């Protein structure tokens, strides 16, 4: 994992349009947005408590240009995972708008939204979300097949090789360790090469070396033009991203382009007050 290096207080790209300034005055990544969020709120009902509500998101705006790698950090309950699931089209906001690659998710019917995700979105789930009856190689091939693409076994094996699991290709998820299942989930996104990659704690079940490989891969995807968004509680992992969005109590508190994990940790701590 990369950490340390010169600190910066504004995250910018070469383009100068469609930027968003977060509270605190720091500049968000700039450029034509591949992901655009406006006025996002998400309210959940509390099971068993009539009329009780929890507001997980409170009017979040965010623009993420193509070819950028953004980490979203924040304390537990800050809304970062809810934000990620809404952006990826896996959860629907209560109010607000999300536009991905120029397509407004709110304008799509459920079947259209699912088809859009299959074509353009890769998601690395915190709990892996593998199909128990399929082998590792078959799990890797599944998203591309759902999108109508033909996937050769050699392609699945190549993706597994990149995460060091080509020798485990024919094993089912229950035969793999937690870290191995996480690597299969990552290889699954690798094989489909989507334009948008959303990752929920992708290094959480991995050792330091394997986590570093995953972060390098996410950065490589962004350099190749994909838009990568990662939620993490690990400030050292966040320091590998181009930009860091700090969330607090359902709001976007500030942005940072620091590669110093200690500075990011300080921003998270300050956002709680």
UniProtKB/TrEMBL annotation:
Transmembrane segments: none
Residue ranges of every copy of the ABC transporter domain listed in the record: 35-272
Gene3D superfamilies: P-loop containing nucleotide triphosphate hydrolases (3.40.50.300)
Biased composition (Low complexity): 7-22
Molecular function per GO: ATP binding; ATP hydrolysis activity; transmembrane transporter activity
UniProt xrefs under InterPro entries: AAA+_ATPase, ABC_transporter-like_ATP-bd, ABC_transporter-like_CS, ABC_transpr_LolD-like, MacB-like_ATP-bd, P-loop_NTPase
UniProt entry keywords in alphabetical sequence: ATP-binding, Nucleotide-binding, Transport
The protein's name in its UniProt record: ABC transporter ATP-binding protein
Source species: Actinomyces bowdenii
Phylogenetic placement of the source organism: Bacteria, Bacillati, Actinomycetota, Actinomycetes, Actinomycetales
């Amino acid at each position: 994992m990369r950490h340390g290096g010169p600190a910066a207080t504004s995250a910018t790209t070469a383009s100068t349009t469609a930027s968003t300034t977060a509270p605190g005055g720091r500049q968000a990544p700039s450029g034509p947005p591949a992901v655009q969020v406006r006025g996002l709120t998400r309210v959940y009902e509390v099971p068993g408590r009539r009329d009780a509500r929890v507001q997980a998101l409170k009017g979040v705006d965010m623009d993420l240009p193509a070819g950028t790698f953004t980490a979203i950090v924040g304390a537990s309950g800050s809304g970062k995972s809810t934000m990620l699931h809404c952006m990826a089209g896996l959860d629907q906001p209560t109010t607000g708008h999300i536009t991905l690659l120029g397509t407004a998710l709110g304008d799509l019917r459920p079947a259209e939204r699912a088809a859009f995700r299959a074509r353009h979105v890769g998601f690395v789930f915190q709990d892996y979300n593998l199909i128990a009856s399929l082998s590792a190689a078959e799990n890797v091939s599944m998203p591309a097949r759902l999108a109508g693409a033909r996937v050769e076994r050699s392609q699945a094996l190549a993706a597994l090789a990149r995460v060091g699991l080509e020798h485990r290709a024919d094993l089912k998820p229950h035969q793999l360790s937690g870290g191995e299942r996480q690597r299969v989930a990552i290889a699954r996104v690798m094989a489909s090469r989507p334009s948008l990659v959303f990752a929920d704690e992708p290094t959480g079940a991995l050792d330091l070396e394997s986590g570093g490989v995953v972060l390098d891969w996410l950065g490589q995807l962004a350099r190749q033009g994909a838009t990568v968004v990662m939620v993490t509680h690990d400030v050292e992992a966040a320091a590998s991203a181009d930009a860091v969005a700090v969330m607090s109590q359902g709001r976007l508190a500030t942005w940072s382009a620091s590669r110093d994990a200690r500075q990011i940790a300080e921003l998270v701590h300050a956002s709680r007050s």
